[in-house]
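Repro case for the chain-ordering regression, as requested:
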Amino acid sequence: MASIRLERLTKDFGGLVAVDDVSLTIPDGEFVALLGPSGCGKTTTMNMISGLERPTSGELWFDDRPMSRVPVGARNVGFVFQNYAIFTHMSVYDNLAFGLRVRRPRPPKPIVDEKVQRVAGVVGVEGLLERRAARLSVNDMQKVALGRSMIVEPSIFLLDEPFSNLDAAFRAYMRAELKRIQHEIGQTMVYVTHDQVEAMSMADRIAVMNLGVLQQFGSPLEIYERPANTFVAGFVGSTRINFLPADRVPVAGGANGVGARVTLGIRPEYTRIVAADSADATITAKVALVEPLGAKDVVHLTWDGHDVRTLGTPGVRPRVGANVGLAFDPAHVLFFDGDGEAVA
Amino acid sequence: MSTRGLKPAGRAIAILVIGAFFLFPLYWLVTMSFKPQDEWSPVGGKIYWLPGKWTVGNFTQALGISTPNTQFFSAAPVDASKPIVHSLLAAGGGTLLALLVGVFAAYGIARFRAGGKLLPFQILQLRMFPPIVVIIPLLIMFTYLHLVDTYWGLILVYGAVTFPFVVWLMRSFFAEVPREISEAAIVDGCTQWGAFFKAILPQVRGGLAATALFVFILNWSDFLIALVLTADKVVTAPVFLNSLQSAGAGQEYGPQAALGLVLVLPPAIFGLLIQRYLVRGLTFGAIKR
Amino acid sequence: MAAIRLERVTKRFGATVALDDVSLEIEDGEFFAVLGPPGAGKTTLLRTIVGLERPDSGDVYADGARMTDVYPGDRDIAIMFQNLALYPDKTVFNNLAFPLRQAKMPKAERRRRVEETARTLHIEQLLKRKPAKLSGGERQRVALGRALVREPRALLLDEPLSALDALLRLEMRAELKRLQRDLGRTLVYVTHDQVEAMSMPDRVAVLRSGVVQQIGTPEDVYHRPANRFVATVIGSPPMNFIPCTVGGGNGAVRIEHAAFVVSLAAGFPRPPLQSGDACFVGVRPEDVHVSAEPGEIRATVYVTEPLGGETVVDLQLGDRVIKALAPPTTKVEPDASVGVVLDPTRLHLFDADGNALLSAAGAEGFSVAPRPA
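-- result from build under test --
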């Protein structure tokens, strides 16, 4: 168990600043996701936490110990990588026990056995202990990889996009499992991903990064409802947020285009299709395209040259080319200034 | 040879010494080729580290260009103009032959797995023994075929002997080109041949240039094969240079040095001409998708 | 007349069967998707249609004519490869012009076509550049352009969007659909992404290990999946499968679970099940509702996953964990006991082997009653 504190952490690869002055605190026992597109610095940040990279400047603390001089092996961190490094020639049991058996002095057999059984239960491979790792499905291999890093009871878990190679159905399953496991064992976890669904569903708090700079650090709800800037607002959310010029949209009660309110942001699920002449309609637009996604439809409208997305009411599919009104929920309208920063 | 264990000063000295050791012959060659006759030998104990009087007389003589200022007289003046031409023809022809056959073979192996697992290895085997092993049987065969002392004979042998290199090098270049590029060309309407010339070959320009240069250098500098298979009608430059080791012309250090320097020129010029293709070619095999 | 027809096509690579007795028909002007996991045979299918692979048995037809022995360049079918395969040494203009050159089109006509295609795809300003100097999205368009410029009878796309980042992918999806509609071309689109397979095509074929599982409109495949595989592969989060047993006698069919019972209304077709058989009840997360009412099916909360626009609630129901989609404002704690409602108009019944027996698909036929603990 340990809390992690990053203070002005920077990594400069001779001209390319991968991580730029990042500071944040992860309390003990929290699940934090580092979220961002490729090249944003999330993996480099995690490598500094693990010790695989030395920071160019800034400091890093586990509880109150400064860690930047401590070598990787001495940091007591557990890793789970994308390419689940398990030993294919060994059985599942031996894979799980490996981390314990290499310790000196070697723990006695009953202790090893008890721990292996417990971890196997937690990750869900109890029935597979005798099987050779090479003969496992890809999904089970990932569970074993998770178990292997858990069994040595590290103070901190680091996971680098561990599920990106797995099929979608299994990813959905593992998200719930991992969250539940973290909740039960209470270990601090740092999870790196570019998939906002993963970050949102599992993390207690999310650190959104772009081009090496920390954009926002907050709970999923905060990131979603009160994004700090247009990048965060645009990156999070299964259906992309709409950005419109604020001075062209008459939102009741708002002073648009005034002062810093340059861009208006509204998420598709906070808009609603109404009749074109309805009093509730904030704007009127033409239906350009309907994308059926099974559980819901995404309707694309064209307004003032912009593509505006809204969610369709199930069962009611608007005709392409029809003129409709779109009602904005004023409680969820966001404003951003000329630099993309959120304003009141 | 590694200089890892030494401190920077020691390392610098070591590099200087080793460098000097390897570069000395080249340095001597260059300076000798510009020295006038009276500076060739250490007469009176004086060694000319640099030419006292820079002169191009050696070059003019070596190339058979006679000028009023020709300084040297000997029973057999050194005139290398013909041997240089013979070398160009033989080496150039051999290189072309090797490329012609080797490039298509390499593509067949890389793209269509021609010859299965055995053929590529068999081709490589051709280079696993030194040519000297087969040079006498070859001479006998060539005598029957009346190919001794002809251009075609040399071209054939040079082509055959360097063909495995072409296959070996070009195969890896071709393997780097994604097969979808030739498939795209086929779907766009090309035949297999069309796809090869229009879509694949342009991708391996660098590799082709590097291979051509490498093979040309091999052929150009060959001594043994030319020595055995030619007599007096076809005389390549290395053979000619060797023939100067005689009492008379053998003393003409200056022209010999000049000739040696001149012989470096064709590969160097060739390299300069294709150098913009070379940069890409030098990273062959490095990237595997 | 079908634009493309495959009749009992089988293709083997050594011991692996890549395509197993595949038959399908693609209509003229249709946007047709093929969905399947990696290794399903999707790429082999495309390559067989365009002619880069020859079927071991079966035939390929285009507009009624047998194409099985016809050279790829003569089939008038264009393909866009997954890795694009642009000609790196040629400018964008020459990449686009290449197929027209092969067809021996006169220079002026070539130029006109290339410029027109470039305008449609918004790449006119890139014509003098080489592929190395283009962004990922721009390269995509050039590859698309090279296929379109021939005005082929059909266009095959092999996972064209999988290499793009999330934002670009969303844009390109909408744009591709618009493009297909405006140009009216027959499009065969291969993907492993179920969102693409749902949102873009007129019809979709689900492929698994070389065998066609189901062909239908996205709605058909979503609401009336033919088997468990299809039901899992489409829809995110995937469908829940709850193991049950068949009970009841007197001609009435009851599907029994520890926590609930499903009965069939009189007018509903009888599934070929016998008392004691094992079966599965399938229900999608959006049709599972968390309720605070008493008297509903009881379950405990396993974990919650807030996604912003909605929250996924994982519920422990008996020995299974099922997922439910709930409004974003839902606040429940792990280990809390809650009520669960399964929407009877959206239930599915599968047999023990995973074949679909019944799908409510909106009709009133099932009724669900909780069982007291």
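Ordering looks correct now. The CA atoms of residues 310 and 328 of chain C lie 4 Å apart.
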